[in-house]
């Protein structure tokens, strides 16, 4: 038996199929009532390369471009989110003039679009250095945009094809119902009276969600009370026996504050707090043993201390092997594909670096003697809470996309990957993808890929079921890569750049994301406060004058002079051939220096007084 609101939410299309196959007619009737309304053709955005589009539709599109007699073979591989493409155009003019150029035929353009490869025409100069033929590249990219536009115009024009596409999209991406959680019934034994600390409605609902699902992303606005929400959820999981040992990982400077807040909310709690001294070399073994042997309501430790707790070696070796296989598959796809050889070489080199890091890690686990410290599995943690989880968003990933801005750093950080291994270890221990709660007010801030990483952390099983084993499959469904014109760093002109800058099919993406995300905005808090307090407004400090007041200052002569040197450095950077060497200028250094000078010229030159 499961709760009704749990059964009638989530992937209700898959549940309906299961119920019909099992002959559970009562379940079938209930599920049919909550099926999502189909998204119509006019609401669906399909990119060339969207994995939900049937392969034969892409083959028909190729024949539309290059003639009905075109030999077209297009097959999609889920693991690598790549297409195997074989095209023999019937119409040569269409291939090299209408939908392509003499230097970049339309069949190659279609192949590149399907596989997210950059379109670039190159040549060798007198010194045998590879150079970009800018006019030819621009012409090829204009043709590529024509192909994209043609695909959009053609896709839903045929009634039969439109029906197939609508069904394919809805069955693949529009199959989730968001569950509503109600925490009004919860009593919280052991908590201080409501006269001292009273939970708001969104806190009660979030606690109920964590107790029932055990996995969530608390995407709550700053000031919404995430700390008390996490503490109460941990205590309820422990009290009900759903968790034997919750671990709360918090920023280093907040460990003592979290401990104080824990006792303020639950004065009788039995918690263990890890101080910096506890994780000094001589004390680590004793402290980890203390975690393992104690019957704690919760353990609190700092982000840095959490890094000292190693994942179980056997689990990490198996997990890394799976990640390595995905990287190897991506490397093969890049090497077999079209595009600029130098760019392909850089992408492969980056992927090889990721692969080597993981292989070295497996080797160290296998060949080096382990220290006497208990590992993550041995200390007995079965529920993990991570405060300020955005600090772990820089997670490594593999992609075939080359020369695309807005993806973030695909090589990631060791800290984020360590967290990724441990979250998967907790979920493997609990089964059904349970046992991890992230708390942050900024789950997505710098790149669209950060939403993908949050989904990887918290809903790996669902991501696999949706066919999003790779970043490229997810991006081809929910993100848009567009060619935009960016101002050069030197300020003297513009350059074309492919950038992932927009979400598409956003309603379906949010339905997927809301399977784990518990989102609370300031407007939600204000609305709930008005409902519960007879229309009174939520007490927030008022801005002087009712709005923000911008304060602008004139640039000084020293700032003007320094910005001129920034422009000169940017011009040298753009003229440089090859990647920067250690110690050389790069774009991030230029931006940092320019920001410092704009704030106060003394940040770059303390000797300047005016």
Radius of gyration: 28 Å
Separation of termini? 74 Å
> What is the strand tally?
16
Secondary-structure-derived class: alpha/beta
Strands in their spatial order, largest beta sheet: 9-10-8-11-13-7-16
DSSP helix fraction:
40-55%
Number of helices: 23
Structural description of this entry:
There is one protein chain. Helix content is 47%, strand content 12%. The strands form five sheets. Strands 9-10-8-11-13-7-16 form a seven-stranded parallel beta sheet. It has 23 helices and 16 strands. The relative contact order is 0.10. The N and C termini lie far apart (74 Å). Strand 9 (271-273), helix 12 (284-293) and strand 10 (298-302) form a beta-alpha-beta unit. Helix 2 packs antiparallel against helix 3 (25-33). The model is unreliable at 366-371 (pLDDT under 50). The protein is an alpha/beta fold. It has helices spanning 4-7, 12-22, 25-33, 55-66, 92-98, 106-114, 134-155, 159-173, 201-213, 226-239, 255-265, 284-293, 303-306, 313-336, 341-367, 414-430, 449-458, 460-465, 471-478, 506-513, 522-532, 557-575, 587-599; strands at residues 10-11, 71-77, 82-88, 122-124, 130-132, 176-177, 216-220, 246-250, 271-273, 298-302, 383-387, 404-405, 436-439, 479-487, 494-503, 517-520.
Q: Features of this protein?
A:
610 residues; alpha/beta; seven-stranded parallel sheet; three-stranded mixed sheet; 23 helices; 16 strands
Q: Briefly, what is this?
A:
The protein is α/β, with parallel strands linked by helices. The chain is built from 23 helices and 16 strands.
């Amino acid at each position: 038996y499961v709760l009704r609101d749990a059964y009638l939410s989530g992937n209700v299309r898959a549940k309906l199929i299961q119920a019909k196959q099992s002959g559970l007619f009562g379940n079938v009737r209930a599920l049919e009532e909550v099926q999502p309304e189909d998204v119509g053709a006019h609401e669906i955005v399909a990119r060339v390369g969207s994995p939900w589009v049937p392969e034969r539709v892409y083959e028909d599109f190729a024949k539309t471009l290059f003639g009905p007699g075109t030999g077209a073979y297009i097959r999609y591989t889920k693991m690598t989110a790549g297409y195997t493409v074989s095209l023999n155009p019937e119409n040569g003019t269409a291939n090299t003039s209408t939908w392509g150029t003499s230097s970049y035929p339309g069949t190659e353009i279609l192949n590149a679009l399907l596989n997210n490869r950059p379109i670039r025409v190159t040549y060798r100069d007198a010194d045998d250095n590879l150079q970009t033929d800018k006019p030819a590249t621009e012409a090829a990219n204009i043709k590529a945009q024509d192909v994209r536009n043609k695909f959009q115009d053609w896709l839903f024009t045929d009634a039969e094809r439109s029906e197939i596409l609508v069904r394919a999209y809805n069955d693949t991406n529009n199959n989730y119902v968001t569950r509503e959680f109600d925490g009004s019934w919860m009593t919280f034994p052991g908590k201080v009276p409501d006269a001292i600390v009273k939970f708001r409605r969104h806190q009660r609902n979030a606690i109920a969600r964590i107790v029932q699902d055990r996995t969530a992303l608390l995407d709550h606005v700053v000031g919404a009370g995430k700390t008390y929400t996490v503490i109460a959820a941990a205590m309820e999981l422990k009290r009900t026996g759903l968790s034997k040992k919750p671990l709360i990982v918090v920023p280093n400077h907040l460990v003592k504050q979290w401990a104080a807040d824990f006792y303020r909310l639950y004065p009788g709690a039995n918690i263990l707090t890890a101080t910096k001294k506890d994780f000094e070399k001589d004390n680590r073994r004793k402290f980890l043993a203390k975690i393992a042997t104690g019957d704690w309501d919760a353990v609190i430790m700092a982000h840095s201390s959490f890094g000292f707790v190693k994942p179980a070696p056997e689990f990490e070796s198996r997990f890394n092997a799976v990640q390595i296989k995905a990287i190897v598959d991506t490397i093969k796809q890049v090497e077999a594909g079209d595009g600029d050889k130098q760019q392909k070489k850089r992408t492969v080199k980056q992927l090889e670096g990721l692969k080597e890091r993981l292989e070295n890690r497996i080797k160290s686990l296998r060949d080096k003697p382990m220290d006497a410290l208990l590992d993550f599995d041995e200390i007995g943690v079965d529920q993990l809470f991570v405060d300020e989880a955005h600090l772990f968003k820089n997670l490594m990933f593999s992609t075939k996309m080359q020369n695309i801005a807005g993806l973030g750093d695909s090589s990631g950080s060791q800290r984020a990957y360590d967290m990724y291994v441990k979250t998967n270890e907790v979920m493997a221990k609990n089964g059904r993808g349970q046992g991890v709660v992230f708390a942050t007010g900024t789950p997505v801030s710098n790149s669209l890929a950060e939403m993908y990483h949050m989904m990887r952390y918290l809903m790996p099983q669902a991501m696999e079921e949706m066919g999003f084993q790779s970043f490229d499959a997810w991006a081809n469904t929910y993100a848009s890569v567009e060619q935009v014109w960016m101002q050069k760093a030197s300020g003297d002109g513009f350059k074309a750049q492919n950038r992932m800058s927009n979400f598409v099919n956003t309603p379906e993406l949010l339905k997927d994301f809301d399977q784990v995300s518990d989102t609370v905005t300031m407007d939600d808090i204000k609305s709930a406060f008005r409902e519960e307090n007879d229309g009174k407004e939520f007490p927030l400090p008022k801005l002087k004058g009712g709005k923000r007041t911008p304060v602008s200052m004139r640039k000084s002569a020293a700032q003007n002079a320094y910005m001129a040197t920034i422009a000169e450095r940017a011009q040298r950077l753009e003229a440089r051939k090859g990647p920067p060497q250690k110690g050389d200028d790069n774009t991030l250094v230029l931006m940092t220096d320019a920001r410092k000078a704009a704030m106060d010229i003394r940040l770059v030159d303390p000797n300047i007084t005016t």
